[in-house]
Amino acid sequence: MSLITLAKTNGLNSVFSDFFEPFNELLQDGFSGKALTLPRVNISEDRGVYYLEVVAPGLHKKDFKIDIDGKILTISGKKEENKEEQEENYTRREYNYSTFSRSFTLPEEVEQDKINATYDGGILKLTLPKNEKAIKSAHKLIAVN
Q: Which residues, 6+ apart, have CB-to-CB distance to 127 below 8 Å?
């Protein structure tokens, strides 16, 4: 039985039903994305570079952390907001804190010390250059016998 059904069957006021609504949705959805949102990622490649784009609008450059540990590239973000409104009869404070973390296994041919990141227009863009050996071996001419 859901929390809202329980509140309605016990004759509780709709105010309590409204209070339980977000928790009920969370339980029914099985944590399917309403409680946790990961930014979308696009990965592409050309002859000498991999490109990784993370769609994360509303953040600032300082909100990102990019870390490499061995072959694992981890991109994380953190945003904190504090708002306070004061009127004659009340004070309203809102606090929002959200984080995300995405990890990727880097291919052998990526030159880790040459990775570059920029953030513009809500998109974090990483360029992951390939080493010269990978670039040379990427183009092959196969003879027809």
A: 49, 50, 51, 115, 116, 117
For 19, how many CA atoms within 13 A lie in the half-sphere containing its CB? 8
Helix, strand or coil, per DSSP, at residue 27: helix
Q: Dihedral angle at the C-alpha atoms of 134, 136, 137, 138, nearest 10 degrees?
A: 80
Per-residue pLDDT tens digits for 3-52: 333 344 444 444 444 444 444 444 444 444 434 478 999 999 998 899 99
CB-based contact 57:37 (threshold 8 Å): no
Asked if residue 20 and residue 3 are part of one domain, the reply reads: yes
- Residue of higher predicted confidence among 43 and 92: 43
Answer yes or no: do 67 and 118 share one domain.
Answer: yes
